[in-house]
Specification:
252 residues, Double Stranded RNA Binding Domain, 2 domains, three-stranded antiparallel beta sheet, 11 helices, 3 strands, globular
Length: 252
């Protein structure tokens, strides 16, 4: 039979060894970052527990159920926040911006900012494969924390935290690009009944083994974005990201 132990009981540890993470001090620091002090000490620990660790310890408790809940709360808060913030923006633009704000790159960037990686409970294999900095794991853990805060403090507490993350995501749009900016840009323009962008290679520099490519993203003869990359594909994605940022900024 699976051994289910309340994870919060293990917060008695004050040490910093990998076997005892997350420590009491780590949880306290996380609470300060989140702006929420947990009444139920088991919730933040569970939100930081990956299934690989739980499986190795023969336990059922991991962050997956909290992630499921947090994802739903994130979607509602983000939709309401965008609806109120941009009263003149079309449904299509709101949907695209929401897609970016709730994306793994944005959530993982926040996780790295609050140093979530070192607190995670990971199985041996996941630890060895660099799980503490995997975008998918970090993003999932952030959603689990949203769910944990919602259960512990209610909707207003979760909304306060999520809106902080959303504001941060907006400010970072020039730095955090969608996973596929070219597709996002194409869908946005199609939704508005506009033409498709084209990409023009304008410069190639550097030695053969380490070339840099500069590409422009063009729509109706106008350059919407320009970026350089180690490959034409990478440069096109970055140029598309710049074009997305420009289009969003023009409507604010």
């Amino acid at each position: 039979m699976t051994n289910i132990v309340p994870l919060g009981a293990e917060l008695l540890h004050e040490g910093t060894s990998g076997e005892e993470r997350p420590t009491r001090d780590q949880i306290r620091g996380l609470e300060q970052q989140l702006g929420h002090a947990f009444r139920d000490a088991s919730l933040p620990v569970r939100a930081l527990t990956h299934s690989s660790w739980a499986n190795e310890q023969d336990r059922d408790d991991n962050y997956e159920r909290l992630e499921f809940l947090g994802d739903a709360v994130l979607g509602l808060v983000t939709s309401q926040w965008l609806f109120l913030r941009y009263p003149d923006r079309s449904e299509g633009r709101l949907a695209k911006l929401k897609s970016y704000l709730v994306s793994a790159p944005v959530l993982a960037d926040y996780a790295r900012a609050v140093e979530l990686g070192p607190m995670l409970r990971l199985g041996v294999g996941e630890e060895r494969s660099g799980g503490r900095d995997k975008r998918s794991i970090l993003a999932d853990a952030v959603e689990a924390l949203f769910g944990a805060v919602y259960l512990d403090g209610g909707f207003d507490a979760a909304r306060s935290l999520i809106e902080h993350v959303l504001e941060r995501g907006l400010e970072a749009r020039g730095r955090i690009a969608p996973a596929d900016s070219k597709t996002h840009l194409q869908e946005l323009l199609q939704g508005e009944g506009r033409g498709l962008p084209t990409y023009r290679l304008v410069e190639t520099s550097g030695p053969d083994h380490s070339k840099t490519f500069r590409v422009e993203c063009i729509l109706d003869g106008e350059v919407l974005g320009s970026a350089a990359g180690r490959s034409k594909k990478s440069a096109e994605q970055q140029a598309a990201a710049q074009a997305l940022l420009r289009l969003e900024t023009e409507t604010e």
